[in-house]
Amino acid sequence: MKPPIGRDTKLCMSLSGRPGNAGSRLHNRLYELLELDYIYKSFSTTDLPAAIGGVRALGIRGCAISMPFKEAVIPLIDRLEPSAQAIESVNTIVNDDGVLVGHNTDYIAAQTLLAQRGIDPATPFLLRGSGGMARAVVAALRDSGFVDGTIVARNEEAGRRLAEEYGYQWCPDLPEQGASLLINVTPLGMEGPDSAALAFPESLIDTCTIAFDVVALPPETPFLRAARARGKTVISGAEVIVLQAIEQFVLYTGIRPSPAQVREAVLFAHGPATAEALALPAR
């Protein structure tokens, strides 16, 4: 049985511009299954330095970092592990006795999903976005051998820098001709003001073969619905968020849950569609 909450309970948390419930449900369910004296809570903030100061001062064990804080948090922590240093983006902070260490598990998740789908690295891609998560996905693409890609970003400075750093092309607007692999790494389609937005026009979805959307809430964005209706291969943000969350869980607790435990937690937090997509065993 999981210990009751008390003075020795370790707190883990997340910071996001638009916090949701799935991460908290996943982590807390795993704590229950593994009988760990931890609790997880999601937060937002308008004062990032104060929030990170609180992580340090209160001894919060771990903190997941989501948009729009993944790059802004770097000057506020003590050091970066190679996964974060290589892409200048942090999605996980581990508090080791007051020393805040930055990691990036988004990169691991993106690379894993590309490999699981068996996507040929010769496949040309079109990626929309230039923030911290975009950097993680672009790095995963490069390190997986993808050589033919275009970064679409209205922010010329960020878009050009990202494209040039990883050896890809940049353009400010979506081209008329798409690519076999379309990747959305923007808030388009996310719950909130952009929930009805289609990340790519139907003309580009018609001609693609794989649709990859990192937006996790809702699990089925307008982009993914349109792609699935056309029989395209789909990679969802819900899958990304689960895989990266498991790596965070391991960093915080030092314990890797079994595939069956992950499946039960995913079913609890995200529902059967995500568990099926991840091909997690029932036992």
TrEMBL record:
<dbReference type="GO" id="GO:0004764">
    <property type="term" value="F:shikimate 3-dehydrogenase (NADP+) activity"/>
</dbReference>
<dbReference type="Pfam" id="PF08501">
    <property type="entry name" value="Shikimate_dh_N"/>
</dbReference>
<dbReference type="GO" id="GO:0009423">
    <property type="term" value="P:chorismate biosynthetic process"/>
</dbReference>
<keyword id="KW-0560">Oxidoreductase</keyword>
<dbReference type="InterPro" id="IPR046346">
    <property type="entry name" value="Aminoacid_DH-like_N_sf"/>
</dbReference>
<dbReference type="GO" id="GO:0050661">
    <property type="term" value="F:NADP binding"/>
</dbReference>
<protein>
    <submittedName>
        <fullName>Shikimate 5-dehydrogenase</fullName>
    </submittedName>
</protein>
<dbReference type="GO" id="GO:0019632">
    <property type="term" value="P:shikimate metabolic process"/>
</dbReference>
<dbReference type="InterPro" id="IPR013708">
    <property type="entry name" value="Shikimate_DH-bd_N"/>
</dbReference>
<dbReference type="GO" id="GO:0005829">
    <property type="term" value="C:cytosol"/>
</dbReference>
<feature type="domain" description="Shikimate dehydrogenase substrate binding N-terminal">
    <location>
        <begin position="25"/>
        <end position="93"/>
    </location>
</feature>
<dbReference type="InterPro" id="IPR022893">
    <property type="entry name" value="Shikimate_DH_fam"/>
</dbReference>
<dbReference type="InterPro" id="IPR036291">
    <property type="entry name" value="NAD(P)-bd_dom_sf"/>
</dbReference>
